[in-house]
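Reader question, answered in our methods column.
A reader sent in the components of a multi-part assembly and asked whether the whole thing could be modeled at once rather than chain by chain. We filled in our standard form and ran it. Here is what they sent:
COMPLEX SIZE: two components
ENTRIES:
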Amino acid sequence: MKTDDQVVEADEAVPADAWRRMHPVTPALKGWKAIVAVVAFASYQFADDVRAASDLLAGRGWLFAVGLVLLVGVVGFAYSGLAWRMTRYAVTDEAVHYRSGLVFRQQRQARLDRLQAVDVVQPLLARLFGLADLRLEVAGGSGSAVSLAYLREPDAQALRSELLALAAGLRRPTTNPSAADAPAVPLPGGEPTAAVPTGRVPGFEEAPEREVYTVPMSRLLVSTLRSAGVVGLVVMLVAVVAGALIAQEAGPLFALLPAALGFVGALWGRVNSGAGFRAAWSPDGIRLRHGLTEQRAQTVPPGRVQAVRLTQSLWWRGPDWWRVQINVAGYGTGDDAARATVLHPVATRQEAAAALWLVLPDLGV
Amino acid sequence: MTDGPTRASAPFDPTDVTWTPVSPRLARARLTVMAVWLVPVLAVLALLAVVIPQPWLWLPFGIVAAFTLWGALLVRRQVGALAYAERADDLLVRRGILFRSLVVVPYGRMQYVDVTAGPVARAFKIASVQLHTASPQTTASIEGLPPAEAARLRDRLASRGEARLAGL
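And here is the structure of the entire assembly that came back:
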């Protein structure tokens, strides 16, 4: 007799041995977030009143604080471990199936012919472990991606090639039974082994690519310094320092501190996401690689770019630099999307033309 | 002009479809969620009124109790009004009595399907199916489906989406 959960979980389109789990190190990488959240919340609460915080931590107070962080850490890791047990995915010829959720169960089914982009994202911590987050972007606002976090980096690459090939209409060789090339232990019953086995689909090699442009670090730094944000920051600094000197008061300088930190953060974000920017063309689609701490390798299949935008701020007119951005239905709006939709962070006129050619080869530029 | 009442409801009631109502267990699930939130509030208000001997303190309790009762009655009617229909090319979801809405999503515009079930929903053996289009706003969601029906609908929507691909 099947329970109701099993009824919903059952899926005839997916053979039982096609289900895979994420890499077992995943909970260790995700559990940290709870600690980070608590520390961030506490520092935000006490940012205005450092003295109150130091009073709290005096005497036995710090023991309590450390205990709280430890408790949150244990809960976070335990939850991540349980969530990892519940999370699995399967790739069939038509769709990607994703199951997750410990308390709130969720199943997502995204058709491969609806694939808008495939990103392999490696945050710093994941990179140290050689893991990667494979994100399948499907159209439909924020939260529409199927995020497979974390897989071993070579596996993520292989899976990306497979997904792109399947999305392009290629089919797995029919003579290769799934059991032969996928030696993972089937999920139901017993302790399953985790992670995708390497080279599970030998038929799909990574498509060859041709590099179109790279962005030199020096130009990225100079362009960031010439951005409107830096100019605004300098003007504001000069004005406030002059005001403080005239009024003989240092108060306004401290009031400026949060704004200045915000500016610096935004600039750092730009340099961080644009560092080592490389764009390449391949039959799979446009390949973009960038990022300093968090590395991101994007692939946007042909015909998935809905719009291109070229912008030039006032201070970029002299060197004739352009920022090229694309609209892809899969990337929603927000911070993460702003990072994902850059086609060229700072392009010369020729490079901007090359970037346009990547998207629209028949534009005649 | 002759058929006044039916004319009024015609936009929400296409003639060529047969509506499938959702499970009545959804009403019980929603009432449970409501009780979890409102019973403690009612208990605190009643306690307050008993402890402090002021007759007007029964007023907040009475107001909240009345709203709770009204909400409980409303939930049953709302769940009764929630229905969906599968046509050849599109899925229809109808809801509401006082404020009516009808969502029509062509299968070809579907981007992905979600099936979700929270703890209360699972206790009452129901699940909800969401059909996402490329627009973040347009989402046809059907709550309160029995598990087997949710699984069937998920697979059916996915296969119909394949047969009638359009756009994006």
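What stands out: The first strand of chain A starts at residue 20 and ends at 21. The domain at 4-22+87-181 of chain A is CATH 2.30.29 (PH-domain like).
Send us your own complexes using the same form.
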